[in-house]
Amino acid sequence: MLKFPLFSKKRTADELKLIRFVIQNFGYKPVHIQHFKQALTHKSILSEEALLQANERLEFLGDAILDAMLAHYLFDSYSQKTEGELTKMKSKVVRRENLNKIGESIGIRRLLEVELGSQEIHESMLGNALEALVGAIYLDKGFI
Hints:
Blueprint: H1 5-8, H2 13-26, H3 33-39, H4 56-77, H5 83-93, H6 96-105, H7 108-111, H8 123-141
Helix pairs in contact: 3-8, 4-5, 4-8, 6-8
């Protein structure tokens, strides 16, 4: 039987768990799983030399993508609102507190790779990872 390298790559149990998580919560099947691994990698588990592999850059990108998508949605949905009103609406939705709650509710805590010693995962790490996941989807697919 011929094996094609493109189709024969076996996924690890952790990769399959991550793929299922993304499909269940975002309705999207990851193509480049590395983006999603990085989105769930907190800098606390990395050496100084590897910090660029943490989720912070993806968080930056995801934050901008969320802002753009929400601005577009509000612009289309509320044609009678002024720029100031739209800005207030957008800021209420993308508040850190809301992103943290969403991150908690979809179970990011179970997948987040973090090393905090005796400290617990701070809830802002969940919102940050949520933004990083949005950034990963964007890199993987573009605007969907």
